[in-house]
Amino acid sequence: MVRVRWVCGLRTAAVLATLILLGITRNVAGELQDVRQSSSTQSVAPAAVHQRRRPPPTYSARDMPFDERVKFQKGEVDSFCAQYNYTFPTNKRTREALNRHILVHKEAHVLLCFVPKSGCTTLKVLLYVSQGLLPPSEVAKDKDSVDQLLLEDVMVRASFLSMTPDEHEQALTTYFKFVMYRNPLERMVSVYRSKLSRWPLLGLKRDTPHFNWARRHIYKYTHPEEYKLWEYDRGVVARNVSFEDFVLYLTTDPMEFKYDEHFAPTFDLCNPCRVRYDYYGNFNTFEEDAAVLMKRIHARPSHLRSSYYQKNDTTQVVMGQYFSQLDTDLKRKVLHFFAKELHFYYLLFPEEAGTHKDILGLEDDLPPL
Hints:
Layout: H1 2-52, H2 66-84, H3 92-101, E1 102-105, E2 110-113, H4 120-131, H5 136-139, H6 143-151, H7 153-157, H8 165-174, E3 176-181, H9 184-196, H10 209-222, H11 224-229, H12 234-238, H13 243-252, H14 266-270, E4 279-282, H15 286-297, H16 315-323, H17 328-337, H18 339-348, H19 355-360
Helix pairs in contact: 4-15, 9-16, 10-13, 13-17, 17-18
């Protein structure tokens, strides 16, 4: 009996020992598994943390801080000019056009390249009034009167034309340089609507001798036979230039557009590979970007009528209607004609990239340069 109890006791002890060993083994295995998981997590964590510390690049110029935007745009322009070897043109006419389009504020050390149909009246008035070249009382006149004033000696006195070549180089090196860019397709429609359309915008006088000549010239180029029929009534011809006529003329006779600043691409007017601008404004954010220039030249919004200092052009809303009048082949000609201008516009403002597809109603990418 005693022996049976002793054997049972041994068995019980053996079972308990086995259970204890199993428990220890499981604990050790669990701890080892935890260690492995911990070590695996620790090996992945640095990479995950590294990824979180590298946020995606900012692809919108308008959202960049000022200094970052200036650095970004300058870098993009330098790469563009180096890659495609764009240099300052030797053509005398082109050089004179550039000198005429760069305005100077000597006291503030600022250069402004103005571009027709990119808010240029507003920017020019800001520059002139802040220098005392244009009395604020004159600004209260209607826009056509102000435009006439800007065509007079005021512009010459404030442009590169008033400076010597040595002064040019000093200004290009040390002055703050500003230009306002606009989507070239939108600007193209705006030029047609305000200068060539048979139905001028309400309240704006467009029947000037210069643009009557432009209408006749375009119509003669696109409708040579019909033009002869109107030989004795050229005024009728001047009122019958369609948007399709304008596009056809612009894209198939590239030398002619250079005779009018309204038809010339911004790249050709302001030559950013020669004048390394410090700030490229966008017409889409005109008020914000014009404020950068105003701060530099110590201008006040009161220098302008409020209607000048607002982007009230409705072209962006209706331009799709104009391009819908064109067939696919002519749309593609537009795309090729503005290839350089659009490439440059997109690198300045990456958030605008690809907008030509919606505007033209094409799925085509930009042709290579």
